[in-house]
Amino acid sequence: MKEFKESIYPEMIKDLPDADIPFNGVHGKILQGEHNQAIFFVIEAIGVVAEHSHGAQWGIVFEGEMDLTIAGDTKTYKKGDHYYIPSGVKHSANFKKRTQLMDFFEDKNRYFKK
């Protein structure tokens, strides 16, 4: 996957299975656990990801930045910043530049392998 060849991720992450992400310009590598999963994302400057909710999510930004709105509170997250979204809390994001981040999901089936 071209997007990952130009990413910061080491080969052991680049070699993970591709995640089936339903958004244009969003690419992921999936690390599947028995009860949870982690996705290593490369997200182009796609603009807004609409408000939604699901199980709890913790993430960290490796490169780039995003505006993340959690329960109506918007903050800009940059390299090294981390965030937590409690289960069921509505959230949205805005990606104005290419961003690389990892999200750890409470839901073991948040995404699936391609």
Short description:
With 114 residues, the protein is mainly beta. Helices cover 7% and strands 52% of the residues.
Gross CATH architecture: Sandwich
Tally of DSSP β-strands: 11
Report the biggest beta sheet as strand number plus sense, adding barrel if it closes.
5 strands, antiparallel
- Overall pLDDT level: 96
Report the span from N to C terminus. Answer: 12 Å
* SS element count, helices: 2
Q: Low-confidence segments, ≥5 residues, pLDDT <50?
A: none
Structurally, how many domains make up the residues?
1
CATH topology: Jelly Rolls
Structural class: mainly beta
Query: Which geometry do the CA atoms define?
Result: globular
Order of helices and strands: HHEEEEEEEEEEE
Q: Can you identify the CATH superfamily?
A: Jelly Rolls
What portion of the residues fall into strands of 2 or more residues? Answer: over 45%
Helical residues, percent: under 10%
**Order of strands across the widest beta sheet?**
2-3-10-5-8
CATH class annotation:
Mainly Beta
Radius of gyration equals 13 Å
Explain what this protein looks like in three dimensions.
The protein has helices at residues 2-5, 11-14; strands spanning 19-20, 26-32, 37-43, 47-52, 57-63, 65-70, 73-78, 82-85, 91-95, 99-105, 112-113. It has 114 residues and is mainly β. The chain has a single domain (2-108), classed as Jelly Rolls, CATH 2.60.120.10. The longest helix is centred in the first third of the chain and has 4 residues, at 2-5.
